[in-house]
Amino acid sequence: MRNTHKFGRMTIPMPIILYLAFTIHVTLADNYVPTEKILLNCGGASNGSDADGRKWTTDVGSKYLSTSGKSTTSQAATQEPSVPQVPCMTARVFYTNFTYKIPVVPGRKFVRFYFYPVSYAGLDVFDGIFSVTVGSYTLLNNFSAAQTAEALNFAFLVKEYLINVDGQTLDISFIPSAKAPKTYAFVNGIEIVSMPDIYSSIDGTLMIVGQNSAFYIGNNTALENVYRLNVGGNHIPPSLDTGLDSFNGGGGSLSAEDRSLKLNGGRLWTGKKHDNRVDLNYCRCSYCLTSSMVVNWFSAHSDVGIHS
Length: 308
Description:
By secondary structure, the protein is mainly beta. It has 3 helices and 24 strands. The protein is globular, with a radius of gyration of 19 Å.
């Protein structure tokens, strides 16, 4: 039976993972309302809604598509029971380098990619080897969704990144690998959601629990989110989260045994460059209560390579 979670399981010593962005930062204000919510149903013949009622816009004929590069649209050859119809059952397939150009306002964004690795347009699923860049960041390099999903026993993958955008256009490029013949790139869905800057401090540093040193997260740092946890609460669907993503409930998902934390997360990395990579642990946890009530942001870092 396929695992329907996004991330695998690992055990991490507690002293390594606890990096606090804010030591339980409390804000008595309305919930954050994203200024941008772009949901692209890649390859879809028309607009559609997912199981949570969110509206996805087809990218067919979209102003976001670049005029250069060769791509096609395709239906997924098969559908596993756990795979959502929208956005996973259609894909845009790229045979050459292809770029989406998406107008945005400057600031930090959640950028999410949905990959359902099955055959599209008669192509071999294991020939889908590609890189993904967003602006100056290389988020995925020679990535195989099929091999990753097979190794993790996942039916589909959701890759989420936190990126700062300085300009007014977000360029998302899919680049088929040149290391093997007949390779292609594909994507089923793309989300771009603006987010509050929960990582900035007065001097730009974050204190590390149990240490006197600080860690700097600047606007040129990209993070990959590997786990979302509503601490002590229930599952939160994307329709009820201001970041438009799901939070797993705290019950049984995160536990402490022998000074170790077990969380559902795989070893992942992302960043702007491939050199000078620092492997850190990253997960973003949040208490999201009802509108106009207390919102507590807690950040720990578990298994993310940060490039800057």
